[in-house]
Amino acid sequence: MVSHRLGVAVLVATAILLAESEPNRVESEKLQDVSGSPDAVFSDAEGGFKTGDGTSETIPGQAETHPHPIETGQADSAGRWVSIEVGSVRVEEPVADEKLENLQAEFDLQDALQQSKPVPTPRDHFAEELVIRPLLSGDIYTNFQFRTRWDTDLHRGKKVSHYRLFPKSLGQVISKFSVRELHISFTQGFWRTTQWGQPLLSAPPGAELWVWFQDSVAEVDVAWRELTSVLSGIFCASLNFIDSTNTVQPSASFKPMGLGNVTDQRFLRYAELPREIVCTENLTPWKKLLPCESQAGLAVLLKSEKLFHSSYHSQAVHVRPVCKDSACRETSWELSQTLGIVFDLHASGQSKREWSLFKMFSRTLTEPCPLASRSKVYVDVTDNPLGEELFDLSPAVSLQTQVVVLGDRRTFTVYDLLTPELYGPTCSLNILLKWRQQESVDMHRPVLHTERFVSGYGLQTGEINTLLYNSHPFRAFPVLLMETVPWYLRLYIHTLTVQSKGKENKPSYIHYLPSKDRQRPHLLEMLVQLPPHSVTKVTVQFERALLKWTEYTPDPNHGFYISSSVVSAMVPSVVAMDTNSTEECPLFTTLFPSTEESSYFVRVYSEPLLVNLPTPDFSMPYNVICLTCTVVAVGYGSLYNLLTRTFQAEEPSGGLAKRLANVIRRLRGVPAL
Amino acid sequence: MGLAFEPFMLRTYMSENAMGSTMVEEKFVFGERAISYTREFAGQKKKTGGMPVDWLVKTMKSRGLEVYTQSFSQTLPFPDEVKERYMVRGTNVYGILRAPRGPRTESIVLSAPCSEGNNNNQAVGLLLALASYFRSQIYWAKDIIFLVNEHDLIGTEAWLEAYHDVNMTGLRSSPMQGRAGAIQAALSLELSSDVITSMDVAIEGLNGQLPNLDLVNLFYAFCQKTGVLCTIQGKLQRNDWNTLPGYTHSLSTMLLMVLKQGSGRPQGDHGLFLRYHIEAVTMRGINSFRQYKFDMTTVGKLIEGMFRKLNNLLERFHQSYFFYLMPSLTRFVSIGYYMPAFGFLALILVLRALDLWVQLSDSARPLEDGASEGEQDSSPSLLTLATPVIICHLTGLALYYLPVLSQEMAIQHFPVSETEAVVLTAIAIYVAGLALPHNTHRVLSGAGTERGWRSLKLFSLLYLAVLLGCTTLINFSLGFILAVTMIPVTAFIQPHRSSKVLHGVALILVSPATTLLLSIYLYHELIEYPVTLLECWQHFLTAVSQGILDHHLYGSLLYPLIALFIYPCWLQFWNIVFWK
């Protein structure tokens, strides 16, 4: 133990020495940059640097950049604590991004170093990482995660005005609206589960926002409305379109992911905007929340023209309270920003199975973010066992780690960006994956996936079909299905059928909240048991309502969107599914699969639907206006004429001469004879 | 017929803004690759003796598409002798190109039928080449479905029914796995040669539905851009509208369209899409003896251009006309011009009915004054009216149900095939309807009265007017053909003792069957492929069997309409002629 601690101290010292020269330069560059472009979020964080003693601030910052100091141990213990807590309180809801916690498992050893504090630690930490997973279809999935933790309480009376790494714009929002948890995602594209497997973090196409408020909030709806407006400003998105007609309060599908055991749905608000289009204007404010913006570290790769030359783009922000330490007497706030991108083999890879950081992002890595305490790149090499090599990875590193991600044990090669020798003589790191053979391999089907479509034709009625596939060979498991349908589709809830394998499958729990016209949507939640190796079909018929003519969108013939349905499930893990693994494992492990691997939590989103409503011909009002105006003009004119004219008995008219004279007189404007 | 004159025709124009400018730069250059796919496909097709499903799946998959298959089977009510099929079993293969960053809500379909023999191999080849080219592009906003369907229309129907999860025709098909949201538009491709001289567009769909005019305009715009000769009804457009040959040319083009639309048959695979509110056309490559030919690259560019335009579509096609007639590809007659023509025809019926009404009330009034006689006359009149109407409709029901139901019996007793049995039974019932005891009122109430036939005629006229009016709203051409033939004769027939034969012959000449026979004759005249009367009779028999098959396979409404409504209505008039 003693030797270990000594070793760490030495390492820290060398890290400080090493870091002193280069990152200082970065820091000064950054300061110039910031002064050039004043930014509300960042200048405040930088303000701390300016006012304080420059050097004394940088050194702890650098100390953090070492891979093995205490902070990571803390983060890890807190993370694990969360998972334990969650396990005890709500079984169906572990932490969604358990990936990070799992990845942190490798730091378990450092737990013991809790007490030793060689340098004074700041109250906030920043960690960044990038996971690269080559997909069997030839595409490649990259997932960035930036995590800021701040050991402070934003709600406890005192006003927090000093922000360092945590973005002030978000911090103020959280304290003003008494937000307990905030999850927001912007996604362009649909995650192709059958081709790509499960994502590390799933999100529906468009925008999704769900918020848990503190139980001290009296007027939740008011706070929610104001919060959406503020967030739409922060993220340059049309979140202000969230109103009561697309907000629901799910009773079971969404539970808090952070600390706290209040699960009263009155404090939960959930909304989806399937129509939201995500583009660079949403990416820029998202990047500005990062401590290093896109100046250093992994964020330099975030170049928008490449990020949007992809098949899938999903960016998210999650804010939640977590434990400060294992004792959990105080809470700290955790902000995770994630960005998942799938690059396409045919469109962006020129059909060549060769991926590199430069090819994907047209940048290479040159340095870690100087404010980051961890900065790593993980490359998933699970499908690349040593015997039969599928692809070559260069530069080769020996550090590997095994983690259970989404019920599957996966092996990652780890690039620690804080070790300077990684960058080589050219001062740049370009990770390259090169396939040996060129044909694609079929992905084994994920255990759970879903599909959704509208059936029928014509503009009067229709049917929403949701297919839930369980491809596990022998295990049944329950899923929680949540459907939100706008009010203008009148659901016939008596036609709701749930069928699997041709037989009726009665849901064990149904929560249905009918819609109110122009006020709230339908909310349908149910718990369905999926038999092994089956397709379960949930159907419900609807009638299309005729809207008022001002309620149509500017492009009514495009159709109206129905947001994705959400399927939350505890899925039996792939490890447990593998029946042939008995030869490799010791016998004692196979009888009872270990609890952490037996099942895992997954949230799957179905595709949104586009439904055409009966639409009037909008040139009709114009015609009607023209016609009515004409009729009114003629009618009114003649009536007015009749009412105002004085009638006189006409004298018997004279001969032709008199009439002619009258015509001439009228032309001249003289009264007739 | 004056509709073919210039003042009645409008120039076609694009209504949809998204389709407006042709600012798409086509970059498709893989004509050679299309031909090599064609060769390979033809070889595989010969080897498997049908649709090479596995090869198609493998090829599409290697091009990066999500590939699914759908198998289906259908038993026809009686064997189809034209296409030689009875129990149909097949597989559709389709690959979905997922739009990058698309949420799977909208899609466009490109379909090519896998036909018998060596037909249409080029279409499949070009489809595959386009698929692999489209896959490498980043700009798609809608998913694209590449569909190769077996057994032409039956395959398309099976695919569409499975896609929309409906079952209307008793098809059995495997559940569908991959979908791509609401289909916005579809193009069907038929190509049977490596080079083409012109491109023909078929627009008439099931029950005379037409695609939005903008889609036809889009086809024309890209033909102009790529320089491909384009035709409609196999006829080029001419610019000399004012001259007599120009007029007859456009008239014959329009008449062809009227006849095809009136038949209610889909003129290509696209025809079945229209029911689902999916705008679709079929494009046929024609290889004639013209000198100048276009290669696959040009055709590919044409389709690429159209697809990129469809990809830009923000809303479904809705701006332009859905009801029109086309005397040439650049000109159309809108519903506003042709409906009045029908209106005037229908006015004859209404006026005639009014006349009868007045006569009836005139004759009733003195009778009422004369007390008891009126009551005697009016009380049985309802019965006398209802009996012939019911008998006529029962005949219609028999005509609708019996041919298919009684085919077994017919085969046992007569040396005919099933198809012949069905057709001949239909004709027999049709003719037998003429000989039915029409004068039931004589049994019921003694001699037929003047009032009796007048009331029956009044009812029949109004019935016919309503029927034709409804038909015209749905399928103008059919309604118009029936109106032109039936209205003048039916309006003026009377049970005259002297000219009974004359009236009878006139009525038979305008009966639906005769109209069909004449239409077939006219059609063959118009496509410059004249037939003799005997051949025409053969075609007539085929048309009847195909009509019944269309109804059972795709839900075409022509046969039930004729059997259940038009024919009974016509029988009522027949009844009037022989009123005693």
UniProtKB/TrEMBL annotation, chain A:
One Pfam assignment: Gpi16
Classification via InterPro entries: PIG-T
Region: Disordered, residue numbers: 24-74
Record carries keyword NADP: no
Span of the signal peptide: 1-21
Keywords: Signal
Keyword Protein transport tagged: no
PANTHER family xrefs: GPI TRANSAMIDASE COMPONENT PIG-T (PTHR12959:SF11), GPI TRANSAMIDASE COMPONENT PIG-T-RELATED (PTHR12959)
Protein name, as recorded: PIGT transamidase
Source species: Polyodon spathula
GN (gene name): Pigt
Automatic annotation (TrEMBL), chain B:
Listed name of the protein: GPAA1 protein
Keywords annotated in UniProt: Membrane, Transmembrane, Transmembrane helix
Gene3D superfamilies: Zn peptidases
PANTHER family: GLYCOSYLPHOSPHATIDYLINOSITOL ANCHOR ATTACHMENT 1 PROTEIN
Signal peptide extent: none
Annotated Pfam families: Gaa1 (PF04114)
Residue intervals passing through the bilayer: 335-354, 382-402, 422-440, 460-489, 501-523, 557-579
Recorded coiled-coil stretches: none
